[in-house]
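Thread: sanity check for a docking pose with pyridoxal-5'-phosphate

Original post by kr_44:
Hi all, I'm comparing my docking run against an independent structure prediction. Below are the sequence and the ligand SMILES. Could someone generate the full complex and paste the structure tokens? I mainly care about where the ligand ends up relative to the chain.
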Amino acid sequence: MTTNIAHFNGQLLPLDKITISPLDRGFIFGDGVYEVIPVYEGAMLRGREHFERLQRSMDEIRLTNPHTTDEWLGLVEELLKHHPGNQSVYIQVTRGVPPKRDHVIPKGVQPTVFMMVQPLASPSRDAIENGVACITARDFRWEKCNIKSTSLLGNVLARQLSADVGATETILLREGMLTEASASNVFVVRDGVVVAPPRDNLILLGITYDLLVRLAAEGALKLEIRAIPEAELRSADEIWLSSSTKEVLAVTTLDGKPVGSGKPGPLFKRMHALFQEHKAQVLHRGKVAA
Ligand SMILES: Cc1ncc(COP(=O)(O)O)c(C=O)c1O
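Reply from moderator J.T.:
Ran it for you. Here is the predicted complex with pyridoxal-5'-phosphate included:
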């Protein structure tokens, strides 16, 4: 097996040689933010947008960004030289290592920067062609879901509910309204219109969510962004999941009941094709630039 090279505070090191202080606020408080960027044959998909969101997450938690977006993109390129092919890059920045444990945000502490690469687990052909099963649950997370925080216990517990019954995702409802899923955004389709929940503090605004909104406009699909009541989710013609690693997937059963026809619907097929075309263009541009 080749060594898995990772980035730690400006250095490239074998993953198993990196050690992190137990006083790191990421470890003690989950006090950090992160990103996951898909890479296809060496080309990042929406790398700049991911680092812009990292900046927004850091602004929300009052953490000074140690790098500009261009510096970040350069650091990822360096790391990717050790990892050809289709990969997912994980980037985490924590509030660093203060001298003692104290909730108050310490001054003058350097953030801890960690990046690693794992093979990209793209959706299987079966998942694309037949769709996936999801369940619903109450959204019991906090009210700052717009921050891509490493404090993911709420998401972990939500995801486990679906894992326990062999389903792909847990779709969350807060006060009778659809928010998102444990690690994905959710879209519904009714009467030929794609509907996405509002871009507010109750969801993570996915880079893929934004891409699908753009692709819908370019592909002349009708799309609305508005609150989605539970009844609308349950009577949807189609439901989709989106994320950087899932791309776009059709949900074909919800809580054990078929969604629409029980097969991936026509608008899903259209969006999936638009997404794949977009990916192919990015890949081509990456090859031309290389
Ligand atoms: C809670 C949550 N919502 C939405 C998403 C989708 O975001 P993106 O499309 O940027 O991957 C994720 C991705 O991990 C997530 O964890």
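The chain has a mean pLDDT of 96. Hope that helps with the comparison, let us know if your pose agrees.
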